[in-house]
Design goal:
Length: 173
């Protein structure tokens, strides 16, 4: 049987171990609480991040839509008006024009015709954005091809023939 001093020593060791164990339990509980708080903050920040990403996506879409509307109003409407003046088939003229040239809005708000990303030049000067200048530009630029030339058909041609039968149209050859 252990003597009294051994029993006291064992009791003190057990009490110290119990105190250490209780201290460790408290620390573990505090760490668990802190971990729960951190995870809750992480989830809150993650949700906020998703909200902000959604907002950014929506704003980017609105910006793209606004840019399309602005381009339509500032570039395409005037270009359509010009194409209607210089061609009897303005849709095709515009398509071909856009394949060869671009139109940009300058800082001064003026429209600039571009070719290969640079302002289109004629005689050392930038080409004006008007129907005569654009018509001359595409004619000179496209002199080896009939793409634009064929788009201006005579509007005063009248086919005559019997009222009840088909008229013979002149050949475009």
């Amino acid at each position: 049987m252990p003597d009294q001093s051994q029993q006291n020593s064992t009791a003190q060791t057990n009490e110290a171990s119990s105190n250490e164990l209780e201290t460790l339990r408290k620390e573990v509980d505090a760490l668990r609480t802190a971990n729960k708080e951190i995870l809750a903050k992480k989830d809150k920040h993650k949700n906020r991040s998703v909200e902000l990403e959604t907002t950014v996506t929506q704003l980017q879409q609105q910006l793209a839509d606004s840019k399309n509307i602005l381009t339509e109003a500032v570039v395409n409407v005037p270009l359509r008006q010009i194409s209607e003046k210089v061609s009897d088939v303005p849709d095709i003229w515009m398509k071909l024009f856009k394949e060869m040239f671009g139109v940009e809005v300058g800082k001064d708000g003026k429209l600039t015709v571009t070719a290969d990303g640079k302002p289109a030049m004629k005689g050392g000067m930038a080409v004006n954005f008007d129907h005569l200048s654009l018509s001359q530009l595409v004619t000179e630029h496209n002199s080896g091809s009939d793409d634009f030339g064929i788009l201006k058909w005579p509007t005063s041609a009248v086919c005559s023939g019997p009222l009840h039968g088909p008229s013979e149209l002149p050949s475009l050859d």
